[in-house]
C-alpha cells in the first residue's frame, strides 16, 4: 500500500482530500492533507528500535506538549500514523533562531517543555540518556561491521570522559532534538513540534543541542545559559554544559553512521556524518582546553 493509499484509508476525512508531501523529514514521511473542513499534518512512521524511537512515546509526548500549550493538537492516531493539527507557520532557520529577539522567544518555550510537559504526560515514560544511546549505537555499528569501526574506541573513550564531566545532573522532560526546523513561528507565537526522541533528560542536553544544531557562537551560548538559568554563568556550569554539548554532537554523529546503514529515506547521511564528526572534534577540543 502506498503512503497515499494509507492516508486515504484512514476514514477520518470530510469529502475528497488533497495530499502533498512535506519535505525535510529524516525519520518520518510527512504529508499535508486537506479535506473539505481542515488541513492536517500526517506523519507516517513505525517504531525505530535502532534509534530508540517508540511511536507510543511520541504520541504520549505529543498529547502532553499540546496540553502544555506548546505543540499542535493530535487529531487521530493509529499504528504507524499520527495526524496533527496544521499550524499556518514558517519553520525557523538556524540563522533566524540565532537572532537575539528570536532566541529570547525560543528559550521560554524550551523552559516550558522542561518544566510543564511532565505534569501532563500519561503512561510509561522514556529516559533519553545520551551516553547510553552512544554506547548502544557503537555496539550496533560493531555488529554490522561499519566502515567507522576504527573510530569507535576513541569516540567511546571520549563519551566516558564527557559523562564524568557533565554531572551532577538535573532531570527534566526534554525534547532532545532541537533543530531549528522543529520551531514554528505563526507570526504571533512559537510552537515546538516533532517528539520522536522525547523523554526525561538533563536540560543541558537540550541546550547543548540547541547551540550545536544552530551553530551558536561562544557569546550566543553564554547569553543562552544566563537567560535560561536566570543567573550569571559559573565555570562549573560552563564545564558541564560543554560536556553535554559535545555529547549531543557525538550522538548526532553516531545517529548518522547508523542511518547510513539502516535508513530507507533518501538523504546524504554520509555527508551528514562527516559534517557532525568535524563539529564534534572542534567542540571536544574546546572542551579539553576549558579544563
TrEMBL record:
CDD domains the record matches: ChoK-like
SUPFAM superfamilies assigned: Protein kinase-like (PK-like) (SSF56112)
Listed PANTHER family: CHOLINE/ETHANOALAMINE KINASE, ETHANOLAMINE KINASE
Name the UniProt record assigns to this protein: Phosphotransferase
Originating organism: Rhizobium lentis
Amino acid at each position: 500500500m502506498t503512503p497515499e493509499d494509507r492516508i486515504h484509508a484512514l476514514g477520518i476525512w470530510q469529502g475528497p482530500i488533497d495530499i502533498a508531501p512535506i519535505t525535510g523529514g529524516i525519520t518520518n514521511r510527512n504529508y499535508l492533507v486537506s479535506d473539505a473542513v481542515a488541513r492536517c499534518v500526517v506523519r507516517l512512521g513505525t517504531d525505530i528500535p535502532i534509534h530508540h524511537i517508540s511511536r507510543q512515546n511520541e504520541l504520549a509526548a505529543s498529547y502532553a506538549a499540546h496540553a502544555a500549550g506548546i505543540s499542535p493538537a493530535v487529531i487521530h492516531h493509529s499504528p504507524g500514523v499520527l495526524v496533527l493539527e496544521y499550524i499556518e507557520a514558517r519553520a525557523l532557520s538556524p540563522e533566524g533562531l540565532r537572532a537575539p529577539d528570536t532566541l529570547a522567544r525560543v528559550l521560554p518555550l524550551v523552559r516550558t517543555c522542561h518544566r510543564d510537559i511532565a505534569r501532563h504526560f500519561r503512561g510509561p515514560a522514556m529516559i533519553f540518556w545520551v551516553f547510553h544511546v552512544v554506547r548502544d549505537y557503537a555496539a550496533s555499528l560493531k555488529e554490522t561491521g561499519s566502515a567507522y569501526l576504527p573510530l569507535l574506541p576513541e569516540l567511546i573513550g571520549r563519551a566516558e570522559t564527557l559523562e564524568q564531566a557533565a554531572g551532577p545532573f538535573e532531570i527534566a522532560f526534554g525534547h532532545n532534538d532541537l533543530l531549528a526546523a522543529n520551531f514554528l513561528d505563526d507570526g504571533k507565537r512559537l510552537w515546538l513540534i516533532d517528539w520522536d526522541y522525547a523523554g526525561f533528560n538533563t536540560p543541558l542536553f537540550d541546550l547543548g543541542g540547541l547551540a550545536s544544531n544552530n551553530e551558536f557562537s561562544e557569546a550566543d551560548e553564554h547569553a543562552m545559559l544566563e537567560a535560561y538559568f536566570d543567573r550569571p554563568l559559573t565555570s562549573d556550569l560552563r564545564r558541564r554544559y560543554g560536556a553535554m554539548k559535545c555529547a549531543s554532537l557525538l550522538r548526532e554523529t553516531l545517529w548518522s553512521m547508523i542511518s547510513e546503514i539502516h535508513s530507507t529515506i533518501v538523504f546524504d547521511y554520509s555527508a551528514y556524518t562527516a559534517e557532525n564528526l568535524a563539529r564534534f572534534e572542534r567542540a571536544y577540543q574546546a572542551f579539553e582546553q576549558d579544563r
